[in-house]
Backbone:
C-alpha cells in the first residue's frame, strides 16, 4: 500500500513538473546553466567530509547548485537540474530494492531541491525560506525511504522513524541547512544581473 502511495505521489509531482515544462521557455543560456550547475552538484557530491555506513553523509554543499539554479531561473529549471543531478549520481552506484525506494533515494530528493525558488527571490528571507522548504521536502524522501525500506538497520529497541530521522537529518539535513544559509548570504542580485547581461 505504502509503495503504491509513493509511486502515485511521484506521478503527481511528475505531472506538476511536466506542466511547468510546457510553460517554460528553455533558451540556450538556460540549457547551458542547467548542465553546468548539475555537473557542479555531482562533482561536489564526490567530495565527502563524512560518509555513513549505510550510505549518505555530508558532502561539499552538493545541494547548493540545484537550489541556486531554482532561485535564479525558477522552479521548473531547478527541478530539471535536480533530475539531471539525480541521474548523474547513479554513476556512483545504485542499490535498488523496489521502484518506490529508487524514486525516494535517487530521483525525488534532488528534484525537490528544485523547489527552492517557490517563494521568490526579491527578499533574502523568501530565498532562505524557499531553500529550507526544498531541503525539508528532499530530506523527507530519505526519511520515508529509511522507515519503509531500511528499518532493519535501526538499533534494537529504537523506533524506526527516530532512527531514520536522526540518520538523514544529521547528514543530508545538515548539508541542506548549511547550503541554504550560504545561498542566503550570496549577492543574488549581482548574480542575476550578470546572468541577464550575458544574453541568451
Residues:
Amino acid at each position: 500500500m505504502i509503495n503504491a502511495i509513493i509511486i502515485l505521489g511521484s506521478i503527481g509531482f511528475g505531472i506538476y513538473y511536466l506542466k511547468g515544462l510546457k510553460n517554460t521557455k528553455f533558451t540556450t543560456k538556460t540549457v547551458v546553466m542547467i548542465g553546468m550547475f548539475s555537473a557542479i552538484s555531482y562533482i561536489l557530491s564526490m567530495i565527502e567530509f563524512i560518509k555513513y555506513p549505510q550510505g549518505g553523509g555530508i558532502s561539499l554543499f552538493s545541494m547548493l547548485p540545484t537550489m541556486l539554479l531554482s532561485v535564479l531561473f525558477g522552479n521548473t529549471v531547478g527541478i530539471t537540474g535536480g533530475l539531471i543531478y539525480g541521474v548523474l549520481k547513479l554513476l556512483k552506484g545504485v542499490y535498488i530494492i523496489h521502484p518506490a525506494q529508487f524514486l525516494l533515494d535517487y530521483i525525488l530528493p534532488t528534484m525537490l531541491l528544485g523547489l527552492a525558488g517557490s517563494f521568490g527571490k526579491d527578499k533574502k528571507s523568501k530565498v532562505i525560506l524557499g531553500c529550507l522548504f526544498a531541503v525539508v521536502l528532499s530530506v523527507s524522501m530519505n526519511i520515508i525511504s529509511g522507515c519503509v525500506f531500511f528499518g532493519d538497520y535501526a538499533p534494537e529497541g529504537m523506533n524506526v522513524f527516530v532512527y531514520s530521522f536522526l540518520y538523514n537529518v544529521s547528514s543530508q539535513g545538515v548539508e541542506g541547512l548549511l547550503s541554504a544559509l550560504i545561498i542566503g548570504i550570496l549577492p543574488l542580485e549581482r548574480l542575476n544581473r550578470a546572468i541577464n547581461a550575458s544574453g541568451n
User: Anything to note?
Assistant: The beta strands are 48-51, 57-59. The chain has a mean pLDDT of 91. The chain has one domain: 1-189.
